[in-house]
Structure formats: structure tokens, C-alpha cells
Specification:
The structure holds 2 protein chains of 2 kinds. Chain A is of the alpha/beta class. Helices cover 34% and strands 23% of the residues of chain A. Chain A has 2 domains: 191 residues, Rossmann fold; 69 residues, no CATH class. Chain A is globular, with a radius of gyration of 19 Å. Chain B is mainly α. The chains are: A alpha/beta, B mainly alpha. The structure holds adenosine-5'-triphosphate (ATP) and magnesium ion. The site of adenosine-5'-triphosphate (ATP) has 16 residues of chain A, from strand 2 and helix 2.
Chain lengths: 282, 296
Amino acid sequence: MSEAEALNDTPPAVADEKPLLQISNIEVIYDRVILVLRGVSLTIPKGGIVALLGANGAGKSTTLKAISGLLRSERGEVTKGSIEYEGKSILQNNATELVSRGLIQVMEGRHCFEHLTVDENLLTGAYTRRDGNAAVNRDLELVYSYFPRLKERRSVLAGYISGGEQQMTAIGRALMARPSLILLDEPSMGLAPQLVEEIFGIVTRLNEDEGVTFLLAEQNTNMALQYARYGYVLESGRVVLDGDAKSLRENEDVKEFYLGLSSGTRKSYRDVKHYRRRKRWL
Amino acid sequence: MFVLEVFISGLLSGVMYSLVALGFVLIFKASGVFNFAQGAMVLLAALTFVRFIEMGIPLWLAAIMTFGVMIVLAIFIERFLLRPLVNQPLITLFMLTIGLNYFLEGLAQAVWDAEVHGLDIGIEDVPWVGLEQATGLLISMFDVISALIAMGLVIILSIVFNKTKVGRALRAVSNDHQAAMSVGIPLNRIWVIVWAMSGLVALVAGALWGTRLGVQFSLSIVALKALPVLILGGFNSIMGAIVAGLIIGASEKLGEVFLGPYVGGGIESFFPYVLAMMVLFWRPQGLFGDVIIERV
Ligand SMILES: Nc1ncnc2c1ncn2[C@@H]1O[C@H](COP(=O)(O)OP(=O)(O)OP(=O)(O)O)[C@@H](O)[C@H]1O
Ligand SMILES: [Mg+2]
């Protein structure tokens, strides 16, 4: 490895390699009338950690569900645009097919199976696997090695463990599917700061050691931009800004609206600037 | 001696209640909906079974064929009723099962007929001679054997639910169907499995009740007997259905014998409900129902 490469802290960009996930200009409508996404495009490189930022109702969860095939059961529909995973369109695929192809979502609010034990919760993640019990049990131990706290609580019902442990269970459950891409929706929600750090730390390790790619929807902009390498900012269903994490952290508007670091005089609500739609041609 | 006899025969008839209750529990566990059509499924299964036998098909083959019919029914229910209504409020699904109930009752009688059919599955409803000689107790052989069959079924179902991958998926779906979907559990297939399992339970219940009462329309009303069992045992507990069935079977018979004379008889018809209501005050989820987890 040359000196220049070794010093470079971002992985070498391979320009000609296809991204793992490519979303182009999607539009999502709920209940046939409620237009929620108005042309969202994202590129998730293989091995990356990409943050999807935005305030309440910006459309982060909707974007993730559009990818993972969970929209349909909420009467949502992708009406325009394309979503390609590993180079193939996945608009027609359901969640079961996508999970078996290595794309899985960890839903906002954790959604553990409260009446199942931690162990059983994790095992449900392996439902689509066909590689036998031995492999599944090996991965169970692997998950416990990332989340040693869970191991102690493995036979407790998930309804009785703490919020942080539930978040770990939800992530661990997704890992049991042996995913290449995890869509992680607001893992920091309702958790104490050091717990959030612990969880993001594990996400980083999973990314580096297991090669799992992450798309991370977060309201906690500060935290997300510390761990992600690239970020997109959503506002009212549109991408209004994107860039690598460092440039976003230093962007004045991000500082003001999302990091709460206002520079200079505080503007009144009226003056809050809304980004105009940036046309993205394909 | 007489008390013991009443008690035991009460327990054994309780097993029959448990069996009907089980059908409800399975569907409730997997979809959170009270399947009003369970009684009609019992009727349909029993009628189909008895007509197959009347055609001269051997007992075991008729049973398998009837199970096949119940599986086809499960596939139809999933495809044409559940799938279009996914994510609708549970009350909508409940209404749907009411409609399904009348449809199946009508269908069963239209395809077969509305006559009373005697069903003979080769077990006679006579006292168990051996037991009578040994202990002097008069217990029906039929009660004993049907209790054993029911117990066997329950054990199989418990193992499927608690020890297998499919069972785990069933419980996951009942707990949080969105989360289940998110990890790739195919809801459609799970629903078919659950409805087919409850079809199997309906078949066993229909065959046993049908042998005793004759296969006729009133079989579908037998399902109402399961209601207090469900309240008492908890809607989502297999164990609860069993124990509550036994408790209700035994206590209604004992109640009839000991309290009946004072209130002019007929206790059997309402006593189980009184018992079930009393339990509700003490444990709203029933004796064995999943604890209602408040936190999260
Ligand atoms: N099932 C649905 N039916 C109708 N509208 C919906 C549905 N789900 C979401 N919406 C609407 O879509 C918009 C975007 O919601 P979404 O959940 O994607 O936002 P979000 O960025 O994830 O917000 P949060 O940070 O609060 O989770 C909101 O205005 C919301 O009201
Ligand atoms: Mg959200």
C-alpha cells in the first residue's frame, strides 16, 4: 500500500464500480393521494455508511420503507423513479425476497417481539436463511460477541429489557439475516447519549469488520455525521443538500438548522430559508 | 364415588371444550383476531368428513382428504379475505369472520346437505369395563379416548409453536406483524399455516363432537361453548385453553349436580360464564394469557 493511500482515511473511491444501492428520483404516494417523496435520489456505495438526515416528517422513514418493500403494507406506493440494488430493480420485490438477498430494515421504534425472548427475537432474523442450524447458531454467537449485554439477557422476554438493549436486539435480529445492507431507522431515538455512542460504535465495527453497508436515517444530525461518511439532507420529501460528512458538518445551514449552532444573529422563523429543489438529472 | 364420577366425566367433556377453544387460540395468536367462523369450520369439517365416509372411503383416507379440504379453505381465506384486508383495523377482520361464518355454514349445507348424519369413528360410547371392574367407576370409553386424542393434538401443537422455526415465526407475527415482515417472515404463508392448523383442530373437534351429537347444523353452535373457556384461559394461550376447558367442564358438571337442585337446574348453561367473568376481574388477560406488557 502506498503512502498516499495509507494516509487517505476514506476508502479509495472506485469510480467505475456500481453502487450497492441506487435510488433515482423516486416519488412516493400514500393512500393514492398523499404525496410524501417528491424526487429523492441517493447513492449508497458498497461498504459505506450513509446518513439520511432531516426533521420530523421529512420523509426519512418513507424512503427506507420504499427501499425495503415495507411501503405496500402501509398503503404507500412508489409511483415514479427507480430503485436498484446490486444493479437490479427491486421495485417489485417484497420484503421476504429482499431480506433473502441481503437487504434488511431495522424499523424506527425498535419493534422487538416483546413476548419472545431475546434469543428467539434474534433467531427470527434468520427465518429466510437456508444454510442450516449450525451456521445460524454460529451467527447467534457472533451477534452476542458484538452485544455482550444481550447475552446476559438472552432468555428474558424482550418486552422487559431496556430501550438500549431493545435497540441492540433489533440490530442483532437484522444481522442474523446475514445482510449486505442494513437500513437503520433512528437508532438513537429515546436513548441516553453514551448509549447512542455505544450503538454507533458497534455500527462502525460491523461496517469495518463484517463489511455491512449502512443507510442510517437520523434526526440526531450531530451524532450521525460523526459516524457516517456521506450524508443527504431531506426536507419535505426532497433532497436539499448532500455531501461528505465533513463538509456537511461545516455547512452553515446544517449548523444552524440541524446542529443548533447558530452563527451570528438568530433569524426569526419567517426567515428560515427553504432549499429550492435541486434538479438531479440522471 | 358418584362425585368422582361426575368430576371425571366433567373433565373429559372439558377436553372437548378445550379442543374447540384451541382453534380460536391459534388464529388469535397469529392474527390478533377473534375468528367468529370457528364454529362453522367445525361444522364444515365434520360434514365433509362424514360425507366422505358415507361414500365408502376408509376412515383414515377420509380424514386426510378432509384435512386437504381445510387446507384449501385456508389458502382461499388468505388469498381472498386476509390479503386484501391487511392493515385494516382488527374490527374489520372480526366483521369479516362473521361473514365467513355464515358463508361457510351455507356452503357446508349446500354442498353436502342439512340432514343429521350419524358418524361412527369406531369408538363406542360405552362404559369402560376394565375400569368399572377395578374401581367401580362408570366412565365412558369414548370420553377417555377422545380425551387422549385431544391431548395428543395439543402436545403436537405446543411443540410446533414453541420449538420450531415456523412456530417462532407464528408467534412473531402475532406479536408485531410489521416487525415480522421487516425480517422477511412471509405473512401470507404464515396465515395459511395457521388457518390450516385451526382447520385440523376443527376436524378433530368436529369428528369427536359429531360422533357424540350426530353431525348436524347445531355443531356450529358448539363453538359457543368455547367462549368462556377462552375468557378463562386467555385468548392467546394453548395451555390456557386446555386448563380452562378442564376447569369449566368439571365445574359445570359439579355445579349442576350440587347447586342445580337449589336454583332449579340449568346451571350448566350460564355457570361457565360466571366463572369466566370472575376471573376477568382478577386477571384481565385470563389465567394463562400473555402478560400485558405496559412498558416499551
Ligand atoms: N402510512 C402513512 N399514510 C399517510 N401518510 C404517511 C404515512 N406514513 C408517513 N406519512 C406522512 O409522510 C410524511 C413523512 O413521514 P416519515 O415517517 O417518512 O418521516 P420521517 O422523516 O421518518 O419523520 P420522523 O423523523 O418523525 O420519523 C409525514 O408527513 C407523514 O405524515
Ligand atoms: Mg421516521
